[in-house]
Amino acid sequence: MTSSLRTRLVIGIVGGMVLLLTAFSLTVYILIQRALVNQFDAALLSTAQILASSIEIDANNIDLEDVQQIPEFNDPKHQTYYQIWEQDGTVMARSPFLGTNDLPRLEASLNTAVFKVLNARNDPPQRAVGLKFLPRSEIGNEKNSQQSANDKILTLTVARGAGGLYSQLSLLRWLLFTASAVTIALSVLIAAFVVRQGLSPLHSIASEIAAVREDDLATRIGTASIPDEILPIKNRLNDLLSRLEGAFKRERRFTADVAHELRNPLAGIRATIEVNLTRTREITEYQSALSECLEIVENMQKMVDNLLLLARLDAKQISFQGEQVRLAELVNTCWRPLSKEAIDHQITFDNSIDPEITCETDRQNLAIILSNVLENAVEYADEQGQIRATGRQADGSVEITVSNTGCRLNSKQAAQAFACFWRGDSSRKDAGVHCGLGLALVERIIKALGGCTTVEVENGGIFKIHLTLPAK
Amino acid sequence: MRVLVIEDYRPLQQSLTKGLGEAGFAVDTTGDGQEGLWYALSNDYDVIILDLMLPGIDGLKILKELRSKGRQNHVLILTAKDTLQDRVTGLDYGADDYMVKPFEFRELLARIRALVRRSYRKKNPQIKVKDLRIDLTAQRVWRGRNELDLTPREYALLEYLAMRTGEPVSRTDIWEHVYEFKSAASSNVVDVYIGYLRKKIEQPGRPLLIHTIRGRGYLLGGQT
To answer: Which A residues 429-448 touch B at CB under 8 Å?
Structure first.
């Protein structure tokens, strides 16, 4: 089966036309043939009946005098012949133009006609009608007459040349065949043209799709009028383009954000190295510069690790190990590395989570979540501020809430907290150390653990992040 | 020349302060936008190096505030924002130059020097005052055919006087444009360094170059 839609449609249309035309031609031919043959046979029968009625029985003789008056039998150009048999098969009379040929005796019931086609070897075909009849009687009583007539039942065959009829039928066949052939040939051309025109919107769409560039996915398909049948395809393609455009935009934005976040540390490393190479210095200055560069590299490495973790989470390449985790204990563990910085900024920390609350989850990844949330709280809490962790267990889930004072965001800004590289810039303490990936990671890991994350800002500048996890 | 660096990324801020200081600039530094605006409005800086994404007030707001208050300081935006729109916006807000991080430190120095020359309407990177020749790029000085050995502070003082050749320069101006605020504020310091400079520049048999204008300060070269 060809894969070309156009070829399929043309073959289908032309095939259908051939079938319909064949059926139509055959029907027309059969009807006309039947009508002509019936007409011919009716005329032949009429001639035979005239012949039969012109035969008279006179005593024991049969009078054929009237037959001589029938013009069809008196002129050979009419090609009409007869032959009459007595009941015992003796030929009683025959057309003088038959020569040495005999007509077949067609057996029929009394007063019924039998038709037959006679095909002589070298002559045109003839149609014949056979008739069994009682000739007319001139004298005698009716009973005797009837008895006598019964003895004189005659069989008559009248044949007539049907060359004209069959020539007409032959001409009709050729006419129908030629007309059908021409119609089919024309239908091939018309079908090819119509299919080509009908499929042209597909070519237009294909051209428009081919014109879509990967750097300009804002293009949409089908600005011209599109047939209803193709409209769903156009709409689905445009939906696909919209999704692709969105994905590409996010990808480009993400790449730009990553590049942007790397520019500052790279500038720091480069400036540190270049400035220290402007002159010969004491070894301690070089050591200091190298330490500075190492610190920058460590921060860059942390950012790259976070990006890698995000990518792996998106690709579902992280496996989780479930175990019973005491939340209060894990929060304290995660707080320990941050306590010094909190003390430096006179920030107090209160862990109010009930020590008995447990959760069956992946300890290592929950630790990453809590570390990021607490680090974020220390980063954005005000001097002498407060950070508080609370927890509750209900309906098969546990919820940890970490809040910090000193939030300068409104609810709308806080809702962006989970976006990659988003930071509450105005409250940043240390540019370059935090690149805005922490809460994005928190959201993705929580989701992967089967939980969810929400944030809220309360009056008085209290930022709250709620972490909900399934208890089991 | 006095430069203000408003940059919140600490490692870069430190390197800029160190590098510009070693290049002979008096450098003030801050990592906070609000504080940076206060510095810029409080002093007459020759060049302000301004980051855009800052805590407190962002760089563009600082620039807008400076221009709205009629400050003519030359501002060089130094930022990680690299799109054409960012550059156009920065320059349209009134910046005099725009550099994208990471950058080459030598280029930054060259651009700052160019902005300083523009501040004092000096196109030529070499200034001649009678037989005194100052190469602003190489930071070298000749009297006649003899190259003079100046300390960075002496060179900075001479460069500032040379930029304003032919006009009296007050001690306050010298203090504000040559000395860092963290050094001890004293008019004597200026006088002492003028003394050091005279000893190295003025030579017997050659015309006097540094003149004291009573009550108005010092003047390099003749009065215009």
So the answer is: 429-432
pLDDT in tens, A107-122: 888 878 899 988 766 6
Q: Which residues of A touch B10 (CB under 8 A)?
A: 430-432
Burial group, residue A128, by CB count within 10 angstroms (0-12, 13-18, 19+): buried
Count of beta carbons in the 10 Å neighbourhood of residue A231: 12
Structure tokens at A364: 């290592």
Tens of pLDDT, residue by residue over A2-55, are 678 888 888 898 999 899 999 999 999 999 999 999 999 999 999 988 888 888
For residues B91 and B48, membership in a common domain is answered with yes
| CATH entry, A231-313, from 1.20.120.420, 1.20.58.100, 3.40.50.300, 1.10.287.130 | 1.10.287.130
Is the Cβ pair A432, B53 closer than 8 Å?
no
B167 has a chain A CB within 8 A of its CB: no
Q: Is B56 on the interface with A (CB under 8 A)?
A: yes
- Highest mean pLDDT (candidates A158-162, A164-168, A215-219, B3-7): B3-7
CA distance B214 to chain A (A): 40
Q: Chain A contacts of B14, Cβ < 8 Å? A: 272, 292
Q: Is B112 exposed, middle or buried (0-12, 13-18, 19+ CB in 10 A)?
A: buried
